Amino acid sequence: xxxxxxxxxxxxxxxxxxxxxxxxxxxxxxxxxxxxxxxxxxxxxxxxxxxxxxxxxxxxxxxxxxxxxxxxxxxxxxxxxxxxxxxxxxxxxxxxxxxxxxxxxxxxxxxxxxxxxxxxxxxxxxxxxxxxxxxxxxxxxxxxxxxxxxxxxxxxxxxxxxxxxxxxxxxxxxxxxxxxxxxxxxxxxxxxxxxxxxxxxxxxxxxxxxxxxxxxxxxxxxxxxxxxxxxxxxxxxxxxxxxxxxxxxxxxxxxxxxxxxxxxxxxxxxxxxxxxxxxxxxxxxxxxxxxxxxxxxxxxxxxxxxxxxxxxxxxxxxxxxxxxxxxxxxxxxxxxxxxxxxxxxxxxxxxxxxxxxxxxxxxxxxxxxxxxxxxxxxxxxxxxxxxxxxxxxxxxxxxxxxxxxxxxxxxxxxxxxxxxxxxxxxxxxxxxxxxxxxxxxxxxxxxxxxxxxxxxxxxxxxxxxxxxxxxxxxxxxxxxxxxxxxxxxxxxxxxxxxxxx
Length: 501
Ligand SMILES: *Cc1c(COP(=O)(O)O)cnc(C)c1O
Fold this sequence. Notes:
Elements: E1 2-5, E2 13-14, H1 15-21, E3 30-32, H2 40-44, H3 51-62, H4 68-78, H5 81-84, E4 92-94, E5 99-103, H6 113-117, H7 120-131, E6 136-142, H8 146-155, E7 161-168, H9 174-181, E8 188-194, H10 198-209, H11 212-220, E9 223-227, H12 233-252, E10 262-267, H13 272-282, E11 287-294, H14 299-306, E12 308-310, H15 331-338, H16 343-356, E13 358-360, H17 363-372, E14 373-377, H18 380-394, H19 400-416, E15 422-426, H20 434-442, H21 444-447, H22 452-463, E16 484-486, H23 490-498
Parallel strand pairs: 5-15, 6-7, 6-9, 7-8, 8-16, 10-11, 10-15, 11-14
Antiparallel strand pairs: 1-2, 1-3, 4-5, 12-13
Helix pairs in contact: 1-7, 3-4, 3-12, 4-7, 12-13, 18-19, 18-20, 20-22
The structure holds pyridoxal-5'-phosphate (PLP).
The site of pyridoxal-5'-phosphate has 17 residues, from helix 13.
């Protein structure tokens, strides 16, 4: 399989190169040249398989220039029972007759980013070897909280790589910050960006990436950039696998017949997770609707409903911070696909977004979006209420992001009457956002003034759930990363870390 840029400015390249480069030199994102198509029998064949076998089968279609033995090693090194708590990796839990929760947070950092970031370093290292690359790879990450920790953990002590994570100083939870600043490993750096939100950090990283003069300087010092943000195809491809896995589990549990279409409900920020579901559908997975759930940063709700993407609005800090995003980078891939794989309109729209902060897609693209997607958003009060009600009615504890998805799914069913089976992506452990979760379940009076760590204990005891290993005793670990820089100083900080003047 070869990959081209959504902006049309490059010759197509194999997946190994797409993964090494991360983002195309013309500023676009890499997209596969075709959609591999799976027949229903091939999907049914996944039913008796383990998660690893399913992932290998899906990834094999997209990463076919990797030697099969390499790919096998990547998949089996990433998705281990040791790292994911059990051999199930991504279990599907039945919540109601229609809603099935796809738990994507059993990895070491307790959020779904592990599904991709546990395997990406392995894919990258194999790719580097295959390409004969001798430079040390510097992985730059902008994070709204979860990606940063998952990247630090995934790349920790991976030979030939360095990872530098930038996070908005006041834009992450106490647990998320501690997870990052206590990260061990000889090749990892976490840097707070003062006075910034996620978009500022992401723009800073993109600017560093697309500065050819700076890249040339780095190369002289034996360094080359890559990206672990969800714009890297090596992150997106592994996410496609779990939608197939969820469908296979529904078949296995006799919840659906082969070929029966299901809805996919995804709490969305940078549009990576839901785009992976779209790719799964393009590969032949029977998906009826993709339900895009946003928090109060509801730019995608407006876009899917009107065709106008307008970032000229107030950025809100919510209790689902991993979705506090106004520029959803991966949307560019969808636009490219729906515009008939024509880069010209994509270049226009992205240019308008950059210059004016707004663009309007044409009628053809808009109609397809309306047919394939449905969108709504969930307010802060509704997030709390959904956590409380889900626990009261089903004895099941969800985190704030998953609550956004469940709330919007409820609105979808009410608006459409569509009671097809639905897979609801659950993107974080409730313990990761325990302050909000505890507040909604136990009430303000019992939780006010308590630290996130006291609340971890409370939640664990009252709900009878063990505290995940990655979050236990976090407050006792030594802080190893103390750097704070302003957004315009991000590049200088990279130079400082790498010892370049
Ligand atoms: C990253 C993240 C999301 C948003 O996923 P995207 O792929 O960026 O749309 C949702 N929930 C959690 C917990 C996350 O970490």
